[in-house]
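Purpose: get a first structural picture of the assembly so the mutagenesis plan has something to point at.
Setup: two entries, given in the order below. No constraints added.
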Amino acid sequence: MPGTVQSIERAAAILRMLAGGPGRLGLSEIARSLDLAKGTTHGILRTLQGVGFVEQDRTSGQYQLGAALLHLGTSYLDINELRSRSINWADPLAVRSGEAVRIGTVLEGQVLIVHHVFRPDDTFQTLDVGSLLPLHATALGKVLLAYRAGALKTDLSAYTRKTLHRNALTKALESIRENGWAADVEELTLGQAAVAAPIRGYGGLVIGAIGVSGPVERICDSRYAPRPHLVTSVRDAARAISREMGAARR
Amino acid sequence: MSERYVVAIDQGTTSTRCIVFDRRGQLVSLAQQEHKQHFPKPGWVEHDAMEIWRNVERLAPLALRRAGAGIEQVAALGIANQRETTVIWDRRTGVPIGRAIIWQDTRTDALVHELAERPGAKELEDRSGLPLATYFSGPRLRWMLDHTPGLQARAERGEVLCGTMETWLIWNLTRGAHVTDVTNASRTMLLDVRTLDWSPDALDFFGIPRAMLPEVRASIGAFGTACEAFPGVRIGAALGDQQAALFGQTCFTPGEAKCTYGTGSFLLLNTGTELVQPAHGLLSTVAYQVAGSPACYALEGSIAITGSLVQWFRDQLGLISSAPEIETLARTVTDNGGCYIVPAFSGLYAPHWRSEARGVIVGLTSYITKGHLARAVLEASAWQTREVVDAMNATSGLTLKNLKVDGGMTSDNLLMQMIADVLDVPVVRPLAVETVSLGAAYAAGLAVGYWPDLDGLRQNWHIAGQWLPAMDPSLRDTEYANWRRAVERTFDWIQPG
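Result (structure tokens, whole complex):
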């Protein structure tokens, strides 16, 4: 059987044991039952704990199945958790870029806005947390699409003459995966542009996107290319939040 | 010209932070270190002042390195600190006499009851603007002098010094300047809030020798030049943490208010240069003073339990696994289903000040789900804010036009909307969550001319988010009446004897 990974098999065995057992189990018990060294078992348990599949009881030190495992079938990321952990990086991004910042995640084939920081010019603006945007016509949405498995099943209606059609979109998503960021230049609204980058969680899984948006002349240079400093700021903020969300420690 | 920064030290209850800010008031780097909480007996909470000073020494170079800044690029240093925490140390060796006793510590409970019976107690409260309570430094200092043999005599001879945390840090930073600022001094009960100097009557009342007290200075001015940790840098400001947050929110004119939502919440309203006689369970406190100008005062209303109710919901009931999930759970329903939670876990603070009250959950029916409970948890923070704002409006004669918010709970959009709804004023979140350290930085920068004036600071303040009231007025009235009935049910739960 080529290509099996022993430690994953062992991790699966530990999870089965915890699921089938009477409740919590101690480290020695688990190691003994699976005939593994304590150190090896501890390493696997720590890793499983890190991704939320296993929890350790604070007083007894024993292990049980973690809450993240129970949510595996459903959407496992709490959007309010994402906002709470992003807020310290979204604010400086707004100041550095001088533009409005939004964080989005996928909900039923659309981008759900989970956090919004006003453009820092004290003009009247309205929070649009909770609103939905099309995936294929926004920078946030294209980032989310680029890292999603499966074919493009989303509705590809054109919002402007610049909204991408299927073939152009497929190519765009490829270059987004290559470059690590996306732009939308008048693809949703004439005169508006945006830049976005992926927010990753445990194991590098893309769980959201953060981006800035504003008038096309501020976001882009004279050749309609996003300004490099904006791209850098957006990607830096995305990386900082990803670290916070548990993607590749340090 | 080399770019210059301002550094803030935020000496808080659980940790000490050094934060580097730039001219736009943006955070450039941060270094943080927690310190140990000592709980020697129930109700006792202590810190090792020396550990805290060592942390500052370690954090200073770290914060500068992370900012890529040299010490010569730092224009000024500002300090914000946990208030009312008190330490005594040896003037010659600089070694603390025992641990610092922190603001949460209630060991002076019996002493405070006894002091309240003494002649002069009423005058003391008028002069200091504070009610006699375990919360403040005066009774704590008396306790320390009583419980270390020979300490009173040493204090009389000027061999030992006392101070709140900013005094301790400045003494160490400057190797020997013994100074405090008016905001911290106004939390001791020893300061005459009108003359802004130690009150001889208050010192007599507590039996505290003048020789051990620091010199009181304006919050924004000159506290000396550091020779340790930040050698050569001028210390331009010191403020209590909640006053620093008020300053960081640029609430410089009467009627402007901020509320910091943490485990508990603190609402401060700028009342200008006139001291407002406190009523309805509020405190009168010094907001800040620029050297050479009259002091600016504030009314303060504190709420004991806000964020810690969410923590209780998470840790003790286990209905959510992280604090932000309270919003997710609360959004599974559209209203509270008739259920109210009043978190009088250790009595109620402003405006009730009922120590015998205990928490209740009322309106339970078989209809109530955990979603309704989650909603009631968030509503409790909103209604408690409303009660404090009502008390502030009644006391000050000012009408709050909007509420500036900061602190961890501001990421909860549902809570922010609820607060706007129940107060019927806009709730505004600024583009800087770290308002405590920002306030200290602003004050220090102002002192050395890094920022020209208060208007210059105002230009750095930008709205990051705003919630507008959208609640039907008759629903608001009904819900407030229900909340007040729920609060009444917490009263008189603990029976005397």
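DSSP finds 16 helices and 22 strands in chain B.
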